Amino acid sequence: MIDLIALDLDGTLLDSSGEISARNRSAIRAALESGIRIVLVTGRGVATPIRIARELGLNLPIICCHGALTKDFTANRTLGHIPVPLQYAKPIVEFGEQNALALAIYVEESFYWLEGPSTGSGQADLCCSKLPLARVGSVSRVSRTCCTLRRR
Predict the structure, then answer these.
(1) How do residues 68-117 score in pLDDT, each as one tens digit?
(2) Are 71 and 77 spatial neighbours (Cβ–Cβ below 8 Å)?
(3) What is the SS3 assignment for 128?
(4) Other C-beta atoms within 10 Å of 100: how many?
(5) How far is the CA of 132 from the CAs of 18, 45, 51, 86, in angstroms?
(6) Is the pLDDT of residue 152 over 70?
(7) How far apart are CA 89 and CA 104, in angstroms?
(8) Residue 5 pairs with which residues in a beta bridge?
(9) What is the C-alpha to C-alpha distance for residues 48 and 138, in angstroms, rounded to an integer?
């Protein structure tokens, strides 16, 4: 007997427009009615999986941020958090900027996106899922921002 189903969001539960199909909704409803537990697992930050879990009537913790964060959203409690230590994160971010790579950076529950090469002035684009695009002066400033957010 199946006890638990773990579902990814993008390309699995959600269609290309970010919606849950009627067929998926029906399958989830049937699974829940038969006593099967359903958990959402995603590379995304917390906002979208929490919204979807509530929309579907799910009550299990969500696993998000590429597996680095497990959140009991019903109690607004973090159950597990596996951060990359700052001594390793800083060189990764610096390497990404030097090689014009796009980086996803999660700090606690905020998601930042460092994308592409610096402009001629040495600036990189950094945006947060909750904020509009913000211009930062350098990767070292990104690292300091992450440090500051982590210490709160």
Answers:
(1) 889 999 999 999 988 888 888 888 888 887 887 777 777 766 666 666 55
(2) yes
(3) strand
(4) 11
(5) 20, 16, 20, 25
(6) no
(7) 11
(8) 38
(9) 29
- Strand 77-81's sheet: what is its strand order? 62-64, 69-72, 77-81
d(Cα 52, Cα 46) in Å, to the nearest integer?
10
- Domains delineated in the chain: 4-81 (3.40.50.1000), 86-151 (no CATH)
- DSSP codes of every residue in 50-94: HHHHHHHT--SPEEEGGGTEEEETTTTEEEEE-PPPHHHHHHHHH
CA distances from 43 to 23, 27, 47, 63, 93 (A): 23, 23, 12, 8, 18
pTM of this structure: 0.70
- Coil, helix or strand at residue 40: strand
Let me know: does 114 contact 105? Beta carbons within 8 Å: yes
Kind plus residue range of the DSSP H or E element containing 96: helix 86-98
For 43, which DSSP code?
S
